[in-house]
Amino acid sequence: MSSSECPASHRLPRGEDGFIALDVETANADISSICQIALVWFAAGQPVDAWHSLVNPREPFASMNVALHGIDAAAVQYAPDFAGVMCAVSALLAGRVVASHMPFDRIAIERACSQHGIPPLTCIWIDTARIARLVWPRFAKKGYGLRSLASWRGIDFRHHDAVEDAGAAGRILAHAVAESGISLEGWLSYSKASKSSSRKIVDNDRASGNRYRRPPSRYAAGTAERSSQLGRAFESEPRQCETKS
Questions:
Q1: What is the fold, at CATH topology level, of the domain defined by 7-180?
Q2: 3-class secondary-structure state, position 222
Q3: Fewest CB atoms within 10 A around its CB: which of 129, 137, 169, 170?
């Protein structure tokens, strides 16, 4: 299912619960030192395709990081740099729901974009760890790491491989949507509230049977237009990235 070819060749999931799970690995303690990025497309709660690429961070690799993911300087010697990878990825993520487990991956992408003078992504981020903490009270305060949740749900994956981690995060989100009865768009509306407010809203809505809360207008507005634009972008070749001078 995984491929290292240009992600423009991958079909995007449609429907209200379609999303893209994202994960990155880093070369050292600098969170922007991305050395692998992966996207896993989900539709109807199932992974339907995946793409990944090694990334040359142009930075030294720390032994601790290499021990975790097995990627070293030799592995990325001929890989594109971050700007080259994001040139293809940015258009595909624009306007899409992108899931990551805890803020690490989102912050890594944001800082790497800033460092390389690339405009920030315009996707709609959703934190699968936060959703899991709201759906399953046993993980409200602890145990909501990716490995812990995956083990509890019976999800077998190889930790610290970007494709595997993205797939596991996506499956956790799919389980949360299915078991809560709350649609992905509903969870997006909860995620805009504070943690305490989110807990109260979710508990009240689940108790009253109101499981499909309408998303905020800034997300709902223009959905059809974004789908049309993404469809056109998908059929065309990726455009060259424009970087800030």
A1: Nucleotidyltransferase; domain 5 (3.30.420)
A2: coil
A3: 137
**Residue holding tokens 């793409």?**
51
pLDDT in tens, 144-179: 999 999 999 999 999 999 999 999 999 999 999 999
Q: How far, CA to CA in Å, does 223 sit from each of 135, 193, 218? A: 26, 21, 10
Residue with tokens 């709660």: 45
DSSP 151-188: HHHT----TT-HHHHHHHHHHHHHHHHHHH---HHHHH
Residue 136: phi and psi, rounded to 5, are -115, 100
Residue ranges, comma separated, of all CATH 3.30.420.10 domains in the chain are: 7-180
Q: State whether residue 203 is helix, strand or coil.
A: helix
Instruction: Indicate the pTM of the whole model.
Output: 0.78
Element holding 25 (H helix, E strand): strand 19-26
Query: Among 36, 45, 16, 61, which residue's Cα sits nearest to residue 165?
Result: 36
User: Which residues are CB-contacts of 128 (< 8 A; sequence separation ≥ 6)?
Assistant: 21, 99, 100, 101, 102, 169, 170, 172, 173, 176
